[in-house]
Write a structure and sequence with these properties.
Helix content: 10-25%
Keywords: Membrane, Transmembrane, Transmembrane helix
Distance between the termini: 139 Å
Largest sheet: 6 strands, mixed
Radius of gyration: 31 Å
Order of helices and strands: HHEEEEEEEEEEEEEH
Protein name: Ferric chelate reductase 1 like
Number of helices: 3
Organism: Loxodonta africana (African elephant)
GO molecular function: dynein intermediate chain binding; protein-containing complex binding
Number of strands: 13
Structural class: alpha+beta
InterPro entries: DOMON_domain, FRRS1L
Length: about 250
């Protein structure tokens, strides 16, 4: 009777109907695929922190710096840039160079390539910048598996390889790793890489520090690149003086 029909209508209304539309199917698939059993979205990986910009205003104050390139250049415009500072029992290095391959610093006893402890930041084919340890055997850089670097980070932007890492001041005695509490000449180099492997540096005679460097002394040292050295050498200055004197005095 009517009562039975009412019960029938109530039962029908209590049972949810399946909509066969694509939108409903996609919504159900999303619920099953992206929601946990409790109905909350699965957690996603946190965003990667961006590479903190190198602060050149700290050079000579709270860290030592070397700049090679155009006068007035900074970490983003120098051909080569390096900074160092003490942090506890570690030394933090920052390197940057105008290259799409690698940038490195070597610790040498004689300003010449050979028998040097080298730290390099290498841009690989996957877009990553890896910190690697090398030892110069003559003119050849041999990769060393024992890598003293820690807290490594690097980036390739605007056709520049830039990196930051720490390494301990004191290390167990090893021919390929020097103690940084001692003073060393610093060798500066950069160049191309092929499939993540370093190749010969960009210039035939890479720059080096004029004297040994102490990690306990912070200086801001600028070295002009070849394009800006024409009139800075003593020989060129002497030549200019001689020509000026000749023009002023005239010929006998």
């Amino acid at each position: 009777g009517p009562r039975a029909r009412a019960r029938g209508r109530g039962a029908d209304e209590a049972v949810p109907r399946h909509d066969s539309s694509y939108g409903t199917f996609a919504g159900e698939f999303y619920d099953l695929r992206y929601l946990s059993e409790e109905g909350y979205p699965f957690p996603t990986a946190p965003p990667v922190d961006p590479f903190a910009k190198i602060k050149v205003e700290d050079c000579g104050k709270t860290k030592g710096c070397f700049r090679y390139g155009k006068p007035g250049c900074n970490a983003e415009t120098c051909d080569y840039f390096l900074s160092y500072r003490m942090i506890g029992a570690d030394v933090e290095f920052e390197l940057s160079a105008d290259t799409d391959g690698w940038v490195a610093v070597g610790f040498s006893s004689d300003k010449k390539m050979g028998g040097d402890d080298v730290m390099a930041c290498v841009h690989d084919d996957n877009g990553r910048v890896r910190i690697q340890h090398f030892y110069n055997v003559g003119q050849w850089a041999k990769e060393i598996q024992r890598n003293p670097a820690r807290d490594e980070e690097g980036v390739f932007e605007n056709n520049r390889v830039t990196c930051r890492f720490k390494r301990p001041v004191n290390v167990p005695r090893d021919e390929t790793i020097v103690d940084l509490h001692l003073s060393w000449y610093y060798l500066f180099a950069w160049g191309p890489a092929i499939q993540g492997s370093i190749t010969r540096h960009d210039i035939d005679s890479p720059p080096a520090s004029e004297r040994v460097v102490s990690i306990y002394k912070y200086e801001d040292i600028f070295m002009p690149s070849a394009a800006y050295q024409t009139f800075s050498s003593p020989f060129c200055l002497l030549l200019i003086v001689a020509l000026t004197f000749y023009l002023l005095m005239g010929t006998p």
